[in-house]
Amino acid sequence: MTKTAGTATETVETDAGTARITWHGAKKARLVLAVSHGAGGGIEARDLVALAEVLPAHGVTVARVEQPWRVAGKKLAPAPKTLDTGWRGIWPALAKSGLPVISGGRSAGARVACRTATELGAHAVLALSFPLHPPGKPEKSRAEELLGAGVPALVVQGANDPFGKPEEFPGGPFELVEIPYADHGFAVPKRADISQDRAVSLITDAVAEWTGSLG
């Protein structure tokens, strides 16, 4: 494990290859929030970075997780089955503290969290920019993954996300927070009534409040 100011980086061997965890520790942690990236990006996504900066002060240790394909330098994610294999292999490192672990991620990472939550014993699921369907193909719904998570879940979704706008989501056992004007990466246009910084703070505020409500 490599440590720098306020963070530590750990590599983990899985059946899908070598994964990497960047830890952002809380001084008096009561929860661990593990968040992974999407199918085309990394842990430098604005929402993952912001959560790592904000949540430790709320008693939540944040683990930003890089799937093996990303660590290996590949540009596109493998099949969902392989992503799930990687997440399963990472889980013991996430749970080693004995604290409850929230399984989370953005986009494809959110799907992985939902699909594996029950079997891994996740405390809850955080789904950032859940890709409800491919853009322009609402008939190819992935709602069953979200509805089948089996644990408390929070969806944080941009109002203009082409992978699924908030009003497209079915009713179900999850909470949903809408980020005005935001797209799939939570970017907001310059003409929007809110700034980019404000949009990101809405995300962190919502997640901080939600994690505070979890038993």
TrEMBL record:
InterPro entries: AB_hydrolase_fold (IPR029058), KANL3/Tex30_Abhydrolase (IPR046879), NSL3/Tex30 (IPR026555)
GO molecular function, one term: hydrolase activity
KANL3/Tex30 alpha/beta hydrolase-like domain boundaries: 29-210
Keyword list, A-Z: Hydrolase
Protein name (database record): Alpha/beta family hydrolase
